[in-house]
Amino acid sequence: MRHWVEQRWYQANPGALAALTPLEQLFRRQVQRRGRPLRGREFGVPVMVVGNLTVGGSGKSPVVATLARWLQKQGVSVGIVSRGYGGKAPSYPWPVTAQSDPVEAGDEPVMLAQQTGCPVFVAPKRAEAVKALVSAHPVQLILSDDGLQHQALAREIEWVIVDGQRGLGNGHCLPVGPLREPAARLSTVDAVLLNGGRSAACDHPELTSALPFSLAISQWRRGDGVVQKSCPFLPGQSVHALAGIGHPQRFFDQLTQLGLAVTPHPKADHAVLTQADLQAEPELPWIMTAKDAVKLRHQLNAQHWVMDIEAVLPEALMTAFSQQLQQLGVSLHWGRSDEHTGPHPAE
């Protein structure tokens, strides 16, 4: 059923889902009554939200990780907050480290802690996570992984990430389409970014000025600790590929573009993974996303590879972002930016 619904969300015509138009109208009225999130500063430091307008993954977390590393290079101390989706902590707000259990903290927060070294806090009420983080760490800026629709979280910068392959789907709000808010919301944010570039699916007036960016492979990590920059596989080599992310096909396509013969194993976003998920015939090497590796880290060995990625963001965007930060009182001490991305630290 879920697959059937998503297919119609991302087709031009919603088909049978059009029968749910009265529910969509009710949803839109609820969004309108809720109003816009508070713009401003509540906890003494600026908050930047990196969110999306559609249900599911669009590439927010890689952008958050890349921004955090870039800011650290400029001498800015950064904290990250998240809802902690998929996890159930003993209490909230909950601090997250690279060693945290994703069952408690959620897979993406643990991944972000590993990739950035930043203090990370999770809470269903993100404002509580911000308050706890600021109280515990002397940060200059908070990055919120998602939270665009979290009304109680005051923010000063909003970026929206859109999947360039799927765009805004059929343009309808839930449940007829994938939109959490009407597309007009995009006209109120500071930047709209297209993950993977512009496709026919992005032929929407609200995406006219959106900026394309790409997710590039930064390194490969083997389950026994080996790290290398170059692809460890020869073109034509057969591999199993595991992806429990919002749009698994993007990951499989990236491997196919490297010339690999991929046997895909798509999982639901934030799916619980076990050793059984790494057992398949024939016996071949496995490649997985960093988010999935977080949940399988105790099962990985020399047969398993993690493909780390980073966002390559437009120079013009980063220049405007730098100016905006300085206007907000965040001082930058210019370091080496490497085209506005930073390397992943080895685990």
UniProtKB/TrEMBL annotation:
GO cellular component terms attached to this protein's record: plasma membrane
GO biological process entries: lipid A biosynthetic process; lipopolysaccharide core region biosynthetic process
Keyword annotations from UniProtKB, A to Z: ATP-binding, Kinase, Lipid A biosynthesis, Lipid biosynthesis, Lipid metabolism, Nucleotide-binding, Transferase
The protein's enzyme class: transferase
GO molecular function: ATP binding; lipid-A 4'-kinase activity
Family: Belongs to the LpxK family.
Function: Transfers the gamma-phosphate of ATP to the 4'-position of a tetraacyldisaccharide 1-phosphate intermediate (termed DS-1-P) to form tetraacyldisaccharide 1,4'-bis-phosphate (lipid IVA).
Name of this protein: Tetraacyldisaccharide 4'-kinase
Organism annotation: Terasakiispira papahanaumokuakeensis
